[in-house]
Predict the 3D structure of the following.
Amino acid sequence: MTTVELERVCKFYDGVAAVNELSFSLASGQVFGLLGPNGAGKTSTIRMTIGITRPDRGEVRLFGEPFQRRSLDRVGFLPEERGLYRKATVRENLTLLGQLAGLSAYEALTRARRWTVRFGIEKWLERRVDEMSKGMQQRVQFIAALAHEPEFIVLDEPFSGLDPVSANEIKDLILELKGQGRTIMLSTHRMDQVEKLCDAICLIDHGRALLRGSLREIKASYGSKFVQIDYQGEDRFLDSCPMIESSNVYGNHAELKLKRDSDPQELMLLAARSARITRFEVMEPSLEQIFIDQVANHA
């Protein structure tokens, strides 16, 4: 079953296309990554997906039917810009937001208490939001997005403001929600988290899709022409080697993309003539490498 479908969706602002003929779909129970550089159209796409704005052209289908506002009771949304009332307490925020999602005041507060215990912020229930750190506010916003047990969850930059321990907790929570059969759309600049979490992605730039589909298939299509080298000594081989298509060099560590039909063994022999090689690894490309490569090629 498909939870979300966007078909040739367009959104214009002052005659400029923020989203241009964009199509993709999310299967039920899937974690889907919506990726792109700043200004690519991700937020505009998310807003159309959950009915904050309407597409100027094209169609959004949610739960198998054209978008209807009554479907939003089945949707949870974590916005990039936090939507909490800063002068209100955590309890007041979560009770109100739970009611807006269709819960009674009693049920909203009951679930809020249960979730604050899980996130370790139960002692803050009667404290004002503006007394909390950004990371703790993020936890409150997460509770607001999940308390009504939505089937489809949209997470816009969910790791923003979180320390590594808290980010790992959120990663585990996303995988738990996936295990429960929830469908999740994830927009983030954290490519490492996308690789750990997402089944499929859509990479967009200037409102158009550059890549979309299974993350595994996308990475496989790039082949194994990526090499990481740790070395000591001269790095002249990086400038003189004709088989290198592009490179990122960090001191004595280099990440290289080789040209099609190149032989990594020839590169290793060339590098060893001017430097002492401490690590040489041929590997599939990281999602970050694919991201940079695609955006650069379509600039």
